[in-house]
Every structure is written in structure tokens, then in C-alpha cells.
Amino acid sequence: MRTFTPLRAKVAxxxxxxxxxxxxxxxxxxxxALVAAIASDPEAxxxxxxxxxxxxxxxxxxxxxxxxxxxxxxxxxxxxLVERGFAHRLTR
Length: 92
Prior knowledge:
mainly alpha; 3 helices
């Protein structure tokens, strides 16, 4: 376990919130790019909320895969759930 000196503790206290803010900004950019890509698909949901939700599920699937024992299986399982959930919306 790393022991923090007083200076390291101060630096860590400043960097952690900045890092979280940066991560949030990056996720928002990625989400916007995914929403645009989804909107360009003629079979995509027409609702802006549904497109944004699908983009967030996609980003979360990647996050889940990083922590999974079998990343590819985790992504496939997540998208199976998403596709089944959105399938009924596309047929309305």
C-alpha cells in the first residue's frame, strides 16, 4: 500500500476531482458522437431519449466488458438485452 506524503496527499486531493470532471466530459463527448451515429441509422429509434439511452447502454457495455472475465461475452450479453428491449419499440 502506498503511503502518501503531505505533498502527495494535497496533489491527490486536487487531481481526483479534476479527473472525475474530465472523465465526465469525455463520456459526454462519446455519448454525443454515438447519438449522432445512431440517429443516422434509418432503423434507429425516432425518439431522442431512446437514442440517448441506447448510446449510454453502449458506453456502459464497454465499461462492463473491461471488468468481465470474458469481455466479448459480456458485450454480446449486454447487447442481446438491449436489442430485445428496443425490438418492441422499433415495431410500433
